[in-house]
Design a protein that fits this description.
The chain has one domain: Mitochondrial carrier domain (Mitochondrial carrier fold, Alpha/alpha barrel). Helices cover about 65% and strands about 0% of the residues. It comes from Apodospora peruviana. Mitochondrial transporter that mediates uptake of thiamine pyrophosphate (ThPP) into mitochondria. Keywords: Calcium, Membrane, Metal-binding, Mitochondrion, Mitochondrion inner membrane, Repeat, Transmembrane, Transmembrane helix, Transport.
Amino acid sequence: MSATQPDMLKASSPATAETAAAASQLPTTVTTTPPLPPPPPAAEKLTTADHLRNTVSQPVVAAFCAGGVAGAVSRTVVSPLERLKILFQVQSAGREAYNLSVGKALVKMWKEEGWRGFMRGNGTNCIRIVPYSAVQFGSYNFYKRNFFERYQGDSLTPLARLTCGGMAGITSVTFTYPLDIVRTRLSIQSASFAELGARPQKLPGMWQTLGMMYKNEGGFTALYRGIVPTVAGVAPYVGLNFMTYEFVRQYLTLDGEQNPSAVRKLVAGAVSGAVAQTCTYPFDVLRRRFQINTMSGMGYQYKSLPDAVRVIIAQEGIKGLYKGIVPNLLKVAPSMASSWLSFEICRDFLITLGPKEEPLLQ
């Protein structure tokens, strides 16, 4: 009798169970999709303040901004001596209104005009000197980085610094000269020069003086009268100033230091200013004379730069080219010292505002 189907299934069940158990022990291959990489972090959106910080922290921009601050600080510190220097410079032979010692001249200025006399022309001077100094320091940094440095942080030769500074001086003068000539007019118009007549009750301001010069003295060319001796003096002055400062600063930096102390920076600034001013001072006198060459009553009408040198030496001697140098040297030490120190402090602060610190270059 043959086995029924259920009996056959029962007989085969042990083998089937064993086969299933063995199959369950075999490794199984599971195909899986690799995980996707995490999405990149969303770029942080920069605010207007972030963009501003990144901009002003650029070395050339930082030098530009810090230069403007340095100019305003340095000129305000020495404003009385700056005005006194101009009053000395513009006196021709035989004019005795300010033929005094520095101390007596300052007392005279105080008695006649008070505190306003000390600050006369300083507002215009600051309006002029802020862009002038900003362009000077900024363009020096620009020319140095783009035309003289072989690589970032390269040390320039003294001749390269002199040339770079001269180019910066010419650039700054060209942009700001009309404000300089107005500052000279404002400085002398309230002084007690008998040749100028009685002082008016209400003195014209900066913009009114600019308009009067443009209207009455020859238009646009009147605003650039005297720029030739100015450029001839400013180019070597600024070049000598930068060259001497960086040399003295490096000399005063102790081994292992990146920057000298504030006192050493003040000394370097004072020395650089004194050297540069002494070497180029006659050009400054010629500049002032030409700026008021058309003002009646001042006693001179020069035809050209050589004519001015000839007349001054013939009538006033060599010392005529150095009139006002004493108050100028008295002011140059605190002026240039405060200028360089405030420039470096402000520049270093602005550079630290950037995303990463840039190497400080001189």
